[in-house]
Specification:
- This protein folds into 3 domains: about 150 residues, Rossmann fold; about 210 residues, Rossmann fold (3-Layer(aba) Sandwich); about 100 residues, ANL, C-terminal domain (GMP Synthetase, Chain A, domain 3, 2-Layer Sandwich), CATH 3.30.300.30.
- The chain has 14 helices and 28 strands.
Length: about 525
Amino acid sequence: MIYRSPFPDIHIPTVPLQEYVFTYANRWHDKIALVDGLTGRKLTYAQLCNAIKKTAAGLLIRGLKKGDVCAIYSPNLPEYAIAFFGIATAGGVNTTINPLHTASELHKQLKDARAKFLVTTPQLLNSARIAIADTTVEEIFVFGKVKGATPFASLMNNQSSRSIEFNTRDDLVALPYSSGTTGLPKGVMLTHYNLLANIAQTNAVEALSEEDSIIAVLPFYHIYGMVAIMSRALYAGATIVTMEKFNLEIFLKLLQQYEVRIAHLVPPIVLALAKHPTVDNYDLSKLESVVSGAAPLSESVANACASRHKIIVRQGYGLTETSSVTHSNSRNLEIKVKSVGTAIPNTVFRIIDLSTRNDVKKGEVGEIWIRGPQLMKGYLNNPDATQEIIDKDGWLHTGDIGCADEDGYLYVIDRIKELIKHKGTQVAPAELEAVLQSHPAVTDAAVIPSPHTEAGEIPKAFVVIKAGDSVTKDEIMSYVNKRVASYKKIRRIEFIDVIPKIPSGKILRRKLIERERAMSG
């Protein structure tokens, strides 16, 4: 069956993204748009809009043509928004890159995206210089000043009266990279219409306010930070407080200083809010709600966080390929902690049996398929991969498994490609991780498939223990195995100092699997 949003469909304007985001910017002329959380450096909405306009002019004078790709290789800074929307205004395409990428990883994305310009920071310049060899990059711009690179600010010394004509349904504005359901990272082609639609859709469910301050701890290179935080907050006239990297004490200080009401986070940060003793040193009384996305959040962690701070904790869901959000728990409806919520306006979804490719019954598990205006145009230069994930009827096959209840709330269980096959039966790592995280001595956990002669694969847990706790591996294993079916039981445990994750909060299972193989080999 097809599950629909409880909210009515909305009208989606066909204007360029940057025009839509700054529709009401004149109302907040002198209001702070962005502030660097570490230094306190500020940009008003007037300064931001002026800088974007001048940056676009500078890029056009530098030879940027409509459809040319510009790469942003930087942590979160106020200038990130200038670069992103300046490139968009000039008709360019933003390929956003993880600042933790090595020169080799950066090189691959620059080459695949055929980037013309690269914007980075002084700290990342050496990697950038190495990475542009044998690519189409013509010039490196740097936030600030450093020898051997063009200051990004020099782009703002230009004026241009050239206007760009946009076909918003077809013209790309962003080209983030995602591995999709399988394989190597691929360029996700997102149009102006895709991103604009997602902002409008999520605002219809729950809009931000010009009174809000938003902590941008999630990276702008990631679709969650790019759309759900940066773009939505600027549309609403909110103040964005940027963080270059996550530091718990600085994060808590900023929550307190800027009296944050709604925090958009990922599960590891929610876990810290729930369990870390340092949290008690800060006044978070203004915090009303936490929205978690990008990875599954266990019910026990959500409840622990909600109880500790007397707040609402809720989940949302989406993918890079869907311009961010497809599902959300709205405060205007019943909130179901275990669920990622209902479909947002103009969005429908199905749950499909993995073997028969037919719709399953309500409550049964299958692959999540989604359709809506936020779906990507496709993968860059990869029609085969595009056809694998988007079928002829426009359904995007997410590669995630889940189920839906009688009210149309979606429950995401895990990724198909991360399932553990124990004697032919599928075991979801995220389900076991949720049980592990409910143990009072466990601060974090990850589960991977471990090779086994008889079973094929068995679940192995990597567990981070609270400092000073003397709990044993057998005690944790017993705790989990009393709470799950026999085929899901954890058979191996290893204590570890930290679970490797990407900035969006997703567990780097590959690294743990490689570690496991190296130790067994």
